[in-house]
Design a protein that fits this description.
The protein has 126 residues and is α+β, with helices and mostly antiparallel strands. The protein is 37% helix and 18% strand. The longest helix is centred in the C-terminal third of the chain and has 14 residues.
Length: 126
C-alpha cells in the first residue's frame, strides 16, 4: 500500500500520518485468509458507526479522511475487511478505490496490488 502525496492532484485522500509502510507484497497467507474471511459489504450507517468508534476526536484528520471517503462513495457498494493484525480495509469496487487504516498508527490509499487483493477476496465470496 502506498502513502499518497499531496502534490499529486489525482489523489483525493491526503493527510497521512507516518506508519511503518504496509507492503502488500509481504502480506502473509494468514493475513490474506483473515481478509478473505472478513470481507463483506457494509452500509454507510455501519461505516459511520465504525468511524465514530475508532475516531473519537472530532478534530482528528484521520476521521475527516475516513468520513470523506464514505461520503464520496455512498452511492456505491463498499466492502470492509480486517486483517489478522488489525488493519482495516475499506474498498469501493465500483470505483476501484480504497483506503486502509490501523487505528492510532496510520492510514493510506490502497495500492494497485492492494486493490487486486481485495477484489480477489470479494470474488472469492461470490
Amino acid at each position: 500500500m502506498e502513502h499518497l502525496s499531496q502534490s499529486d492532484p489525482s489523489n483525493q485522500i491526503t493527510d497521512f500520518m507516518p506508519f511503518e509502510k504496509i507492503d502488500i507484497d509481504s502480506i502473509d497467507e494468514e493475513r490474506r485468509k483473515s481478509i478473505a474471511k472478513s470481507i463483506r459489504p457494509v452500509s454507510v450507517e455501519e461505516l459511520k458507526k465504525l468511524g465514530n468508534e475508532i475516531f473519537h476526536d472530532l478534530d482528528d484528520p484521520w476521521r475527516e479522511t475516513f468520513f470523506r471517503f464514505i461520503e464520496e462513495h455512498s452511492h456505491a457498494t463498499i466492502h470492509h475487511a480486517t486483517s489478522s493484525d488489525g488493519v482495516h480495509f475499506i474498498y469501493c469496487r465500483d470505483e476501484d478505490r480504497g483506503i486502509w487504516f490501523l487505528p492510532g498508527s496510520g492510514k493510506g490509499a490502497l495500492s494497485v496490488k492492494g486493490r487486486q487483493m481485495i477484489r480477489a477476496a470479494i470474488e472469492g465470496k461470490s
